[in-house]
Amino acid sequence: MRFRMSAVLATSLFLAAGLAHAQWKPTERVNYIIGVAPGGTVDQYARGIRNTLEKLDLVNGQTLLAENKVGAGGSIAMQFVKGMAGNGHYLSTFHTGAIAGAVTGLIKVDPREFVPVAMMVEETSLVAVRADSPLQSGTDLVAALKADPTRLRIAVAPALGQNTHMAIAKPLQAAGVAVDRLTIAPFRSSGESVTALLGGHVDVVSATAPTIMPQVLAGKLRILASAAQEHGSGALAHVKTWREQGVPADYVSYNGVMLPPHANAEQVKFWEDALRKVSQDKDWIAMVEASGNKPIFRGYVQSHRYLESEWTAAQTLAASLGLGAGK
Question: Which among 245, 265, 295 is the end of a domain?
Fold first, then answer.
C-alpha cells in the first residue's frame, strides 16, 4: 500500500511542478477498455469520449478502438488493463461504482492501483416509484421505512454495495432508517430494475437519471428525490434533492477515464490535456446534458483525491449496511 501511494504521490508532484511540453504521444493503436455491456450510460459516455478524441484528432493520428470486456462486476476489464501496466495506449473507465464494488468485495481488483486521469461526467442518482404509488416524496419514503424497514422492495443494480445501492442507503441512513434491514432487490442492470418497478415486482428503484427520466416523461414513474448536491435544471427542475427535503445527505457518482498502473507523468499529462479538450466540445456537452447528467472536467490531481476520499466514505457506508468493507 505504501509503495503504491508513493508512486502516485511522485506522479502528483511531477504534475504539480508542471510539464511544459509532454513528450509522450500515442505511437500505436489506442485501446479503450469498457467494463460494462453496451448500451448503458457508462458505455455511452466511454464511446462518446472515444468518438470526440477521434473527431478532434487528439490521438496523434492513431486508431482508437473501444472494446467491451464484460463480467465479474467489471473485474475482467480491470484485470486486463492491470496487465498493461505502464502502457499509455490503454484507457479504461473510471467510475464511482468500481470503488463501491471493490470496497464491498464485488470487484476483486483495487481501483487505487490505477491512475485516474479525469472525471468527465457528474451523475445524478434518483429514487423513483410508479406513478400510482401513494408515496409522493422522499419524506413519505422515509416515514414508511422508519415504520417498517422491510415493507418496501427497493431495486438497485448491478449488485448490493454498488453505487445505486449506496445512493439510496446514504440518505435513508442520515434520515434515521435502519438501512441494514432494508429489503434490497439487486438486478443485472438499471434497465431491468426499472422494468421490474413498472411491472409491480418492486416498489422503489434507485438508478441514475438517464434510466429513469424516459419513464418519468412518459408519465409512468414519479421521482421522490434526487441525491445530487444541488437542485437540478431542465427535466430535473421540479425534483427536490434529499437536502431540500430535510435529509442532510447526498451521493454523487462520477464517470471518467483512467490509465493502467504505473502510467508515467508524461502519459498522464498527454491524456489529461486531450480529455480537457473533449470536455469543451459542444457535441460532447450536448450528449451528456441530453442524458440528464452534468458534463464536468476534473483532472488527475482532483480525480486521485476523490478516489481516495470516496474509498474511505464507501468503507464506512458499507460497514453500516452489513457489507464486507475492504482495507
Answer: 245
Question: How many C-beta atoms lie closer than 10 Å to residue 185's C-beta?
Answer: 18
Average pLDDT over residues 24-32: 97
Is residue 253 within 8 Å of residue 296, measured between CB atoms? no
CA nearest to 227, candidates 250, 193, 204, 203: 250
Instruction: In whole angstroms, give the CA distance from residue 91 to residue 58.
Output: 14
pTM attached to this predicted model:
0.81
Task: Dig out the grid coordinates for 116 from the structure.
Answer: 485516474
Residue 325 forms part of a structural domain: no
pLDDT in tens, 208-231: 888 899 999 999 999 999 999 888
3 state DSSP class of 94: strand
User: CA-CA distance, 297 to 280, in Å (whole number)?
Assistant: 9
Convert the pLDDT of each residue in 54-88 to its tens digit: 999 999 999 999 999 988 778 899 999 999 999 99
Judgement on whether residues 118 and 185 belong to the same structural domain of the protein:
no
Give me the half-sphere count of Cα atoms (radius 13 Å) on the Cβ side of residue 61.
Answer: 1
Query: Contact, 306 vs 98, CB < 8 A?
Result: no
Return mean pLDDT, the chain.
89
Enclosing domain of residue 302: 2-122+252-320
pLDDT for position 38? 80
Which burial class, exposed, middle or buried, applies to 83 when counting CB atoms under 10 A from its CB (0-12, 13-18, 19+)?
A: exposed
Average pLDDT over residues 123-149: 97
Alpha-carbon dihedral angle through residues 209, 203, 163, 181, given to the nearest 10 degrees:
160
For residues 187 and 158, is the Cβ–Cβ distance under 8 A?
Answer: yes
Q: How far is the C-alpha of 202 from the C-alpha of 44, rounded, in Å?
A: 27
Which residue is it, cell 480491470?
78
Number of domains in the chain: 2
Looking at 230, 245, 260, which one is the last position of a domain? 245
CATH number reported for the structural domain that contains residue 53 in this entry: 3.40.190.150
| pLDDT tens by residue, 228-258 | 988 887 778 899 999 999 999 999 899 999 9
